[in-house]
Amino acid sequence: MLNLEKSSAAFAEAKTLMPGGVNSPVRSFARVACDPPFIDHAKGSKIYDIDGNEYIDYVGSWGPMIVGHAHPDVVKAIQKAAERGTSYGAPTLLESQLAKKVMELMPSIEKIRMVNSGTEATMSALRVARGYTGRDKIVKFIGCYHGHGDSLLVKAGSGAATFGQPDSPGVTAGTAKDTLTVPYNDVEAFKNLMDTHGDEIAAVIVEPVAGNMGLVLPKQGFLSTLRQETQKHGTVLIFDEVMCGFRVALNGAQAAYGIVPDMTCLGKIIGGGLPVAAYGGKREIMDCVSPIGPVYQAGTLSGNPLAMTAGLATLNIISAEPSWGKADYTRELTIKTKHLLQGIAKAAKDAGVKIQIHQAGSMFGIFFNENDVYDYATSEKSNQEAFGVWFMEMLNQGIYLAPSQFETLFMSGAHSDDDIVKTIDAAEIAMQKVAQF
Ligand code: PMP
Fold first, then answer.
1. Residues lining ligand 1, Cβ inside 6 A
2. Separation CA 254–CA 263 (nearest Å)
3. Is 61 helix (H, G, I), strand (E, B) or coil?
4. Over 90: is that where the pLDDT of 162 sits?
């Protein structure tokens, strides 16, 4: 059994200092049967807690750590930048370098603005879309999470779903009324909504691959319908690729599915583990942003040199030319993820446990569910008790998974074949436990 004595003591103290002992709710492990390990350090595919336990990490800081923890190139870049000063609040070459790199990988972004979190990116993109169209209403999909901006905490996924708070108190009725919601993948409901309200809608925001109700893939025709309908009504289509950008494919879900959005939100990977996010898109729309346009948005630490350099180092690693005989970085991760999932699927089958496994590049998710999962309602029907048994048994065996079925798991370039074998071995034991419970 896992010894979490020091972590539990640290958590008890933290609870007197911070709501739930944490600075972001899902970290509290409140829906699973143990206290959260307090992390001491991380390297490659592994994280280590203050009790001395080692885990193979499939959370990867909820997505950013695509090249693994403390990658030498990223650490070196941050160290070098830190020696030159940690923040200037003035323009730097690094900002343009990261901007160019992101735009080269996602050509739908003609201009970009760096911010500090995914929340800021989506919140700002919506403000710009409203300023650009002169309209108030937005559409989001039930179970998608776009950060904790007021207008997006309506039928939200991720921690909001985990804790049964998809509609947060504190969001005014006036704000909530401008957010219209539709089930993910429901083309008919979306078309009906656009038929009645299309001309009042500033923006449709979507996770093109949804990672906040577990991992849910877009059905054939869903994203193209969003594109057609928004075009028809002069509505801005925003792809929130904060999570799926550079994971579903190097050039994002927009390349994988061949849909060009008007705006894109990015985060996580573009900061290489430091607080960076960005929003960008068509020049005409982005030119609404201050100081050249009237829509105000700013940030003391936006474009921070440490964060820019960490993001740039990370994007350089994943976009480097592959060595001879190798697939590119994201393809390699996709193949590695597939191997892991084949092993987990077999472990479940051998134990007689019915699961749904979803993969999109290096993102993956497992639902304890006999039926297809394609939206929030179907995801919510997954067996929470079975998940709890699976989660605890995997943790006991040193496999660190997200403590909720409404989250996505991530493969990194640092995960070795040995890590994958160990994870599959653990899964065989865990699935037997699930079968017995
Ligand atoms: N959009 C998506 C798709 C996300 O997954 C998240 C966070 N997981 C956010 C926005 C918000 O990002 P942040 O937590 O950096 O505010």
1. 62, 117-119, 122, 145-147, 158, 207, 211-212, 240, 242-243, 267, 277
2. 11
3. helix
4. no
Residue 337's contacts (CB-CB under 8 Å, 6 or more residues apart) are: 359, 361, 362, 363, 364, 411
> CATH number of the domain that 220 lies in?
3.40.640.10
pTM of the model: 0.98
Are 115 and 35 contained in the same domain?
no
The pLDDT of residue 271 is above 80? yes
Q: Is 145 a catalytic residue?
A: yes
Range of the domain at 211: 72-319
Q: What is the pLDDT of residue 98?
A: 98
Q: Ligand 1 centroid to 379 CA: how many Å?
A: 19
310/413 same-domain check = no
CA of 271 to the centre of ligand 1 (A): 13
Indicate if 289 and 262 belong to the same structural domain: yes
Across the chain, mean pLDDT equals 97
| 246 CA → ligand 1 middle, Å | 15
Kindly report the CATH number assigned to the domain that includes residue 27: 3.90.1150.10
Is 55 in the active site?
no
User: What is the structure's pLDDT at 157?
Assistant: 85
pLDDT at 200 > cutoff 90: yes
Instruction: Dump pLDDT digits (tens) for 204-217.
Output: 999 999 999 999 99
Ligand 1 atom closest to residue 62's alpha carbon, by position in its atom list: 8
Asked whether residue 216 falls in the same domain as residue 264, the answer is yes
Q: Is the dihedral of CA 398, 399, 401, 405 positive or negative?
A: negative
Three-state secondary-structure class, residue 16:
helix
Tally the domains of the chain: 2
Among 287, 302, 319, where does a domain finish?
319
Contact 326, 347 (CB under 8 A): no
240: annotated active-site residue: yes
* Residues 58 and 95 reside in one and the same domain: no
Question: What is the per-residue pLDDT across 72-105, written as a single tens digit (0 to 9) for each?
Answer: 999 999 999 999 999 999 999 999 999 999 999 9
Catalytic residue among 240, 262, 375, 419: 240
- Token pair of 387, please? 């998940």
Q: What is the mean pLDDT of residues 337-362?
A: 98
